[in-house]
Amino acid sequence: MTTPRIRTRFAPSPTGDLHIGSARSALYPYLWAKHNQGDFLLRIEDTDQSRTQEGSLESITDGLKWLGLEWDEGPEVGGDFGPYFQSERLELYKTYAQKLLDTKHAYYCFCTKDRLDQMRLDQQANKQAPRYDKTCRRLSAEAIQKELDSNTSHVIRLAVPEEGSVVVEDLLRGTVSFEAKDVDDQVIMKSDGFPTYHLANVVDDHHMEITHVIRGEEWLPSLPKHVLLYQAFGWEQPVFVHLSLFLAKEGGKVSKRKGAMGIFAFRDQGYLKEAILNFCAMLGWNPKTGQEIFSIEELIAAFELKHINIPNPLFETDKLNWLNQQYLKQLPLSDILRRIEELAKVAKEAQPYQDFLAWFTAFEPKRQESIWEALRERISTLLEATETVNWLKSPSYQAGDLVWKKSTKDAALQALLAAKEQFVSLPEDQYLRSSLEPTIIDWIKTTEWGNGDILWPVRYALTGQQKSPSPFEMAELLGKNETISRLETAIKMLSE
């Protein structure tokens, strides 16, 4: 018997932007399909028309493309198992809903909204779990036909067995058992003729020959309903893998409203797609090797479903910042500039990137390389790099800020006067950190001053800030003329 070709899918609803959680839900099936030379599908589950948001589809598809998670079948690509929008497959769902009715695995429900609302209120009052009370399941064939002939609004519900249990295997969690009495008679076809997630999902996964269903653990309570549908149709079940949701650092699960920002929000903050993919991969997966930084090719080669962890991983932006910094250090400046140019065009707040480019590209290539070499050691994102432009603005400070620790105003003045002479003596082509730092430090050693006595007032004169790049980096960024001008301004302030 031949092993079936591995086929996985990412099946989002167009109800919002692609965010970190959904990116991981796309990444894992993508990696598993590619690891096995299989197929990765994109299917749009748009049967809940009331929740569909304009622009959401583009956010999802553009986000996947930006991350490099190209799908083998789906919207824009096509394939042999389409259509790939559930709203275009309604007749198929109606056919299978009728089969369930014919085999008594489903039934018509004519209950009004008012009755259902009252039923839930009564259940709450009696401290009962909210679920349908099966009233319409007990209707006679004649009563059902009468309601149908009268065109009474209705839904179709799954007829869950009233006793026994539903047992299913999850690749990560092992055997999972659900008591049938605790499973609701779920609506599978709504009154508007659209299926609910449960029916459409099972029908599509079967017809599209999906071998592995990899999704978040929020779908675990729905698993018995899906298993019952597979059994009712006599279909082979796929391999189920339910991923643990990740936790916010302050506690609780991350949601769209609680920290799970959209992918493009991360992009606009200057995070690289490689770092985001690496970060998402490590949110619940462990390669068992100690390796932390992976290219997408390395992720594909190393990825194994059995190495996914069940405990909820912690969503830590500190880790993402570290990963992003590692990638920034690896990339050549030409690649960095290309990405900043992209952000200058597409970021929601593009002005910082535009301002940075206007300033940075005015330098000759040698100066650009030197400036970036200094920057890359202190930034975690491309957006942080653009803050360099802010350092170039005329600083605002008080004369007292220039005085180092237990020093005095006069001592700070004398230190700045001496430092200015050194900076004046250096030619413009030596205004690189690699030249300035050893020259000035060696000079300080020949004086009665310590490093702080000189470098503190110089830093404040150049930046007006306690926390900033070193005075050598600032001198490189400012150039000789502006460096001398700012030192003279500080000297004047201390002299008055």
UniProtKB/TrEMBL annotation:
GO terms for cellular component: cytoplasm. This is Glutamate--tRNA ligase. SUPFAM superfamilies: An anticodon-binding domain of class I aminoacyl-tRNA synthetases (SSF48163), Nucleotidylyl transferase (SSF52374). One of its GO terms (molecular function) is ATP binding. It catalyses: tRNA(Glu) + L-glutamate + ATP = L-glutamyl-tRNA(Glu) + AMP + diphosphate. The gene is gltX. It comes from Candidatus Kerfeldbacteria bacterium CG15_BIG_FIL_POST_REV_8_21_14_020_45_12. Residues 6-322 form the Glutamyl/glutaminyl-tRNA synthetase class Ib catalytic domain. It is an enzyme of class 6 (ligase). Belongs to the class-I aminoacyl-tRNA synthetase family. Glutamate--tRNA ligase type 1 subfamily. The lineage of its organism: Bacteria, Candidatus Kerfeldiibacteriota. One of its GO terms (biological process) is glutamyl-tRNA aminoacylation.
